[in-house]
Design a protein that fits this description.
Blueprint (H helix, E strand, L loop, with lengths): L1 E5 L3 H11 L4 E6 L11 E4 L12 E4 L14 E2 L1 H8 L4 E5 L4 H14 L4 E5 L17 E5 L2 H4 L8 E4 L13 H9 L10 E5 L3 H7 L5 E6 L7 E5 L2 E5 L4 E6 L11 H13 L4 H10 L8 E6 L2 E5 L6 H9 L5 E6 L8 H9 L3 E7 L2 H16 L9 E4 L3 H11 L5 E4 L12 H13 L1
Parallel strand pairs: 1-2, 1-4, 2-3, 4-5, 6-8, 6-9, 7-8, 9-10, 10-11, 11-12, 16-20, 17-18, 17-20, 18-19
Antiparallel strand pairs: 12-13, 13-14, 15-16
Helix pairs in contact: 3-7, 3-8, 9-10, 10-11
């Protein structure tokens, strides 16, 4: 086959390796002329890299390329679509604004710990095409899927999980409606034989869940549900048609923060539905501590505890992180601009008594965050205000020096940026690793 790969990032490289082994003729197309392409591949680089694509049998678009940019390209597909077309086993697709990485990984561990032939991939950093050749009919695949990956899918997973859906990637999507539509597209092709698990605590998530033709299960941390999972008397409960199973006390789960219950509940619903026994469910959710860069304990120095939540790139996840702790917090936030609404984040910062310091980095985003904090302080009644220290510093290193200066024994220094990382770092992982290094210096 004659194949073009648009974009040579992680997915592009995985596709190139996959089709190289199958003796395809490959052309790498990337608009960044500095992208390194091995000499044994043909290439089209620079501004016109996505031109002259009519003669290819398949053209793979990387997730970061907006569909409109290549809308007229014939034989256009994506790695995710190709995987759905060729996967021989059931797929569990997990999407939402935040929490999908943790939920996907927990589902994978619940299945794997119970002895099932499970695989994990997608937006979490493992292109599923890398294990496509290993799959059998009795395997099961868990995919974390971003709006970039769901937007143009023409197939749906057997089990779809819809977590909290708010707003994100407004620098990519034309509108909030387009973003929500991209998430909903994951369910568009489900049949009555399929299953959807939706978070009933979020209006948009529940609305999206109800669009599926499949059987709807709901989860809630705030109220009882009829079919799915909820919290009752401090315990995680799975609700069936005729039975209620108590799985574990919420105090004994391994994940930190109340918001992580929103990730645990759909995971146990999916795993129990796929035959995992309650005893195994309990053991795994009590042992699973989460993923790197998600409320990750990285250091205890002079009795000050440092948590790395670099994966927090939206205001909502930063709010969840602030609410996860009871001890005094010194928050490091800010980063590159994604045009998020910081009003609710600022309100929480101003009204949260345990939050002592907010240290901001970055340029445009930090300025808007400062303004949001000022406005929140203006409209908050005096009885709810407190003496919150707010600083705007040049970079993460300066922010850490300030945090270490203010933090006392028993306090928490929390990196939960509410912004992307690109002004100072290549990605959230690099930002988190630097935070770890600085915390341990």
């Amino acid at each position: 086959m004659n194949i073009a790969i648009l974009g040579f990032g992680m997915e592009g490289k995985a596709l190139a390796n996959y089709f190289k082994r199958r003796k395809a003729s490959l052309t790498i197309c990337d608009q960044n002329p500095k992208t390194h392409v091995p000499k044994h591949f043909k290439s089209q680089m620079g501004e016109n890299a996505f031109s002259n694509l009519k003669n290819f049998d398949l053209v793979f678009k990387s997730p970061g390329i907006p569909p409109a940019r290549v809308a007229e390209t014939p034989h256009l597909t994506t790695l995710t679509q190709y995987f759905f077309d060729h996967c021989p086993c059931p797929i569990i697709g997990v999407t939402g604004t935040k929490g999908k990485g943790t939920t996907s990984t927990l589902i994978y561990h619940l299945l794997k710990d119970a002895g099932q032939d499970a695989y994990l991939g997608g937006n979490i950093g493992v292109p599923p095409i890398t294990f496509l050749g290993k799959l059998k009919k009795n395997s099961i695949v868990v995919l974390e899927l971003s709006s970039f990956q769901t937007q143009d899918l023409t197939k749906s997973p057997h089990i779809a999980v819809i977590l909290n859906v708010t707003s994100d990637h407004m620098d990519y999507h034309a509108s909030i409606e387009e973003y929500h539509s991209a998430k909903a597209n994951l369910l568009k092709h489900q049949t009555e034989n399929d299953i959807v698990v939706a978070n009933a605590d979020y209006k948009k998530s529940f609305e999206i869940g109800k669009t599926s033709k499949g059987k709807l299960f709901t989860v809630s941390t705030r109220r009882k549900v009829a079919l799915g999972a909820d919290i009752e008397s401090g315990k995680i409960c799975i609700k069936g048609v005729k039975t209620t199973l108590s799985i574990s006390s919420i105090k004994k789960v391994g994940l930190i923060g109340k918001h992580n219950l929103e990730n645990i509940l759909p995971a146990v619903v999916v795993a129990y539905g796929l035959g995992v026994e309650p005893v195994s469910l309990k053991k795994t959710i009590q042992e699973f501590k989460g993923l790197p860069h998600r409320l990750e304990l990285v250091a205890i120095k002079k009795k000050v505890v440092y948590y790395n939540d670099s994966f927090s790139t939206t205001p909502e996840t930063s709010v969840a992180a602030i609410r996860a702790f009871e001890k005094p917090i010194h928050l490091i936030a800010g980063g590159s601009e994604k045009y998020s609404d910081f009003s609710e984040w600022a309100k929480v910062c101003v009204e949260t008594k345990k939050l002592k310091t907010v240290i901001l980095t970055g340029e445009k985003s930090a300025v808007r965050m400062m303004e949001a904090l000022r406005m929140a302080n203006t409209v908050t009644p005096k009885k709810h205000r407190k003496n919150l220290k707010i600083l705007h510093l040049l970079n993460l290193r300066e922010a850490m020096i300030a945090a270490k200066t203010y933090a006392k024994a028993g306090d928490i220094v929390l990196l939960s940026p509410a912004c992307a990382s690109f002004e100072e770092f290549n990605n959230y992982k690099e930002r988190g690793e630097i935070f770890k290094k600085l915390a341990n210096e």
